[in-house]
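Quick one: structure for this chain?
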Amino acid sequence: MKTHLFPAIKLTILLIVLLTVVYPAVVWGIAKLSAAAGQGQTISATGKKYYGNIGQSFTQDKYFWSRPSAVGYNAAGSAGSNKGPSNEEYLAEVQARIDTLLAHNPGVSVSQIPMDLVTASGSGLDPDFSVQAAKVQVARIAKIRNISEAKLIAIIDMHTDRPLWGLFGPEKVNVLNLNIALDNLSGQ
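Got it. Here's what it folds into:
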């Protein structure tokens, strides 16, 4: 018994120290070396302060709509919905989002709607969406703001984050940055 018990206790103590003290200290140290010193990306616009790395709710027709959030954009409650693709309530939510998107974007077909405009991310706080999610909304915004679609496409291209080294991850657009650029362009 001693041959198994004492090594198990030693290993438990070692792992407790390693995983509750050393590892968090290393992660904290790396965060402090980052550009924002571990405080997140803050953006000031229109007299307000926003966190650029946390999803924001944009639902007005004059803005690019955000990716839906399963937690109401509450960073304290980051989580997915935990509803599977066969859950009837979840399917009804997604269908309602599709119907709303189609009603506000005439000329867009169901096949053109990217999945990230009607489904929430795993954290429920994704600040980014796909380039296609932005482009599918261009006609609506161009009409409301009286801006050419070509100019809106140029703004999307300017705010598109490319994959790391051209290999890792998809192209994506930060919705907050895109909407701030849109307000700056139209002077609103």
